[in-house]
Amino acid sequence: MYEESAATYNELFKNLKARGLEKVWLVVSDAHKGLIKAVRESFVGCSWQRCKVHFMRNILSHISGRDKQVFAEKLKQIWLQPDLDSAKKYANSLMDEFESKYPEAINILEEGLEDSLQFFSFSEIDSRKIASTNILERLNREIRRRTRVVGIFPSLDSYIRLVTSYLIEYSEDWSSGRSYINPKTIMKIQQKHAKAA
């Protein structure tokens, strides 16, 4: 069984590269240390976006129940700001407001803020699509739903066949016009990065 380690992720990325993956500009994930290390080793120069949803959960776990909803509403506003400077300014005012009451939560926010704002460097893309791992979470939920319907699989191969056929169908949907990010936008970013290199 595979474990979530830098070595395992490096092997995964090596296999993806062997299958044609090139020019990774942004990786969006939770803050798993092994994954972050592997991203930095495998995709030199790539930005890493900390999933804002996972990050918010980490922060909110240190807020008392009675303040959680109000704090969460204020916290969300960081990622809804129009630009990076506004987001940082808003975050600083939030940290000043709650630093004495919730020092652990504010410490987590301060330490991870920069990583959670990387999506601002890709202004051509709708931030909702690259600021969190929500799309992957939805895909995983659908796979779990489909496998639950079957219940018990006669073998691991039958499970893999079901999941693979769904992923092929999912991939075909995206390649036939329902692309998550417009290919023209990708080309624009590619040109921008080529000029910068």
In short:
This protein is mainly α and 197 residues long. The chain has ten helices and two strands.
Mean pLDDT across residues: 90
Count of beta strands? 2
The low-pLDDT segments are none
Query: How big is the Rg?
Result: 19 Å
Question: Please, how many domains?
Answer: 2
Beta-strand content: under 5%
Total helix count?
10
Name the shape in a single word: globular
Secondary-structure element string: HEHEHHHHHHHH
Distance between the termini: 40 Å
Briefly note the structural class of the backbone: mainly alpha
Helix-residue proportion: 55-70%
Characterize the largest beta sheet: strand count, sense, and whether it forms a barrel: 2 strands, parallel
Strand order of the largest sheet: 1-2
Give a verbal description of the structure.
The mean pLDDT is 90. The chain has 197 residues and is mainly alpha-helical. Strands 1-2 form a two-stranded parallel ribbon. The chain has helices spanning 6-18, 33-42, 52-60, 65-76, 84-98, 103-116, 127-130, 134-150, 156-175, 183-196; strands at residues 26-29, 47-50. The protein has 2 domains: 6-130, no CATH class; 148-196, no CATH class. The radius of gyration is 19 Å and the shape is globular.
Q: Could you give the topology of this structure?
A:
Elements: H1 6-18, E1 26-29, H2 33-42, E2 47-50, H3 52-60, H4 65-76, H5 84-98, H6 103-116, H7 127-130, H8 134-150, H9 156-175, H10 183-196
Parallel strand pairs: 1-2
Helix pairs in contact: 1-2, 3-6, 5-6
